[in-house]
Design brief:
This protein has about 350 residues and is an alpha/beta fold. The chain has 2 domains: about 170 residues, Rossmann fold; about 140 residues, 3-Layer(aba) Sandwich (Rossmann fold), CATH 3.40.50.2000. About 35% of the residues lie in helices and about 15% in strands. The chain is built from 13 helices and 12 strands. A 7-stranded parallel β-sheet has the order 3-2-1-4-5-6-7, with helices on both faces. Strands 9-8-10-11-12 form a 5-stranded parallel β-sheet, with helices on both faces. Helix 8 crosses helix 11. It starts with a strand and ends in a 5-residue tail after the last helix. About 5% of the residues have low confidence.
């Protein structure tokens, strides 16, 4: 029986996660020749804007729905931020895709006030208002979830620890529009500047900025399109990220592809050697405690940048192969879903 895939996703929004959801639909339709749709979950027709962001039109075109057919031939895939969607279906095969681990916890605040205090994006709060505040374990172990998919090793280890055995890998790949391959002749012209995400780990970054006392140029990655980000990365030497790394983070990979040296903490996905596989000398267990060492490392990188690029060759090669890995993961998933049926 031919299956129909529905991939749940917030409408209107452009993030790395929502792009991945659209990429999944594209691969199902164009590589595996399945029938797949983006299933927009927060549609408000009073907004006179397209549900599909312009940047994602190339992935889905008109292949989107605002409702699904709850039948035995339907497969519903939802990100971990909205598991309630799975519980609204009776007949569809229900899949929870762990694009992150940490963001799963957001919906389990005991009060609405606690939820409002969190720094997660407003649209998530609005989406989650539809979901009753059930217990963490009640949702995690709900038998109506037929399959769990892991985007990262962090998610895989988390589910293993929680003894969730009905799981498979479905990784991701990044949009190479942001990747502007550096011209080797320009390496010596890179600027002594540090890029950072102002929305992740800024309390630590702020401490570093103060400690550097104006001797380092710090540039936040905000209000920029993909090409602008790529251009900045191409002309910079370092990207730092002391956030929570809820999965296999996108921006560190973009930085590595653009030959930035990256420095992180050891939280979330950065704790293991698969999601962010960089030498240990670039990872810090407690960045605040090690702030002086980080500043010293930054100055060392400025002086020895060309000799350090080799430290990231393996990581860069792995990132370049991610689309192939994603397609193989997806083929395994589809084969599993059809079982012994002819695909």
């Amino acid at each position: 029986m031919k299956k129909t895939f529905y991939v749940a996703c917030p409408a209107y929004l452009v993030t790395g996660g929502t792009e991945l959801l659209h990429q999944l639909v594209f691969k199902l339709n164009n590589i595996l020749k399945e029938r797949a749709y983006i299933f927009y979950i927060n549609v408000d027709w009073k907004f006179e804007v397209p549900l599909t962001p312009k940047r994602f039109e190339k992935y889905v075109g008109n292949n989107w729905k605002t409702e699904i057919e709850d039948t035995d031939s339907s497969v519903l895939i939802v990100p971990e931020i909205c598991p309630y969607l799975l519980f609204e279906q009776k007949n569809a095969f229900k899949v929870l895709w762990w694009l992150s681990v940490d963001n799963f916890y957001v919906q389990f605040s005991t009060t609405k006030e606690e939820l409002e205090e969190r720094t997660f994006k407003n649209y998530i709060k609005k989406v989650l208002n539809r979901f009753p505040f059930r217990g963490f374990y009640t949702v995690l172990y709900d038998k109506r979830i037929d399959l769990h998919l892991c985007q990262s090793e962090y998610a895989n280890l988390f589910l293993e620890k929680m003894k969730i055995y009905n799981r498979m890998s479905l990784s991701d790949y990044i949009n190479t529009d942001v990747v502007i391959q550096p011209n080797s002749s320009l390496i010596s012209k890179r600027k002594n500047q540090v890029l950072y995400n102002p929305y992740k780990g800024f309390s630590i970054t702020k401490e570093l900025i103060q400690l550097a006392n104006g001797k380092i140029e710090w540039i936040p990655l905000e209000k920029l399109d993909a090409i602008q980000i790529g251009t900045l990365m191409r002309e910079s030497k370092i990207y730092i990220d002391f956030g929570n790394h809820p999965g296999k983070d996108r921006i560190p990979r973009e930085a590595v592809l653009n030959d930035c040296i990256i420095i992180t903490n050891r939280k979330g996905g950065a704790k293991n050697d698969l999601d962010i596989p960089i030498p240990e000398k670039y990872k810090f267990e407690n960045p605040l405690y090690s702030s002086q060492k980080i500043i010293e490392l930054i100055f060392e990188i400025f002086d020895t940048y060309e000799n350090r690029i080799g430290d990231f060759v393996n990581y860069k090669s792995k990132i370049m192969n991610e689309e192939v890995v994603f397609e193989n993961d997806l083929k395994n998933l589809v084969t599993f879903l059809y079982g012994n049926e002819e695909v």
